[in-house]
Amino acid sequence: MAASSLTQLYQEREAYRLPVYSARQVAHLTGLAATTVQAWTRAEDALVQPASAEGLSFLNLVEVHVLAAIRHQHGISLQRVRHAVQFVRQELQSENPLAQHQFETDGVDLFVRALEDENLLINASRRGQMTIRQLVEAYLRRIERAADGFPLRLFPVYGSTAGLGIGAETLPTLIAVDPTIAFGRPVLTENYVPVDVVVGLYRAGDSVQHIAEEFGLTTRAVEEAIRYELGAAA
């Protein structure tokens, strides 16, 4: 797909570009410190360009998720990340490069899949050098994409699960963020009940079992919602 067509595609999916998240909310959904999210989104040469001054979009959330994987899961230097983002933003005309393109890594450099050959990767952190596809990272597979590559849904790596030391490939997918459901609030994937509704009842004194029966959820889903909102000790 040509770069201009890809840009048009992203512009047409307006719900994914609305500034509905604060830096603190994005931090909670990605297991990062709010100061880290702010540093990545508020600098003059921000790695993630905010949807607007009012807040961050779902595409921005996906970008921060990818950036967290690149920086913290794989230890790629910030300089190489910055080179890769600048290259893709400029050369491939991408408004949200970390969301629009599927980055992969060998632990040293960042690669973006070439449009004409899915087995060929462009070494974005070295300004376009070509290499053969080596690795698909489990962390990045938590982004559910449409057939055209557009990110539709994110299964977040949030603070409570990250703190348990669970590998990304084994993290539960019981909570999702989808801009077309509940205005982008985190929901339980079993029946799309907003997490904050479940946790609100728990805080009010309802038992896990009662909440599960009330909404037709498994107790595991209710417990995961509580862990997401209140932390691993809940």
From TrEMBL:
Species per Swiss-Prot/TrEMBL record: Hymenobacter perfusus
Top-level taxonomic group: Bacteria
Protein name (record): DUF433 domain-containing protein
Xref: InterPro entries: DUF433, Homeodomain-like_sf, WH-like_DNA-bd_sf
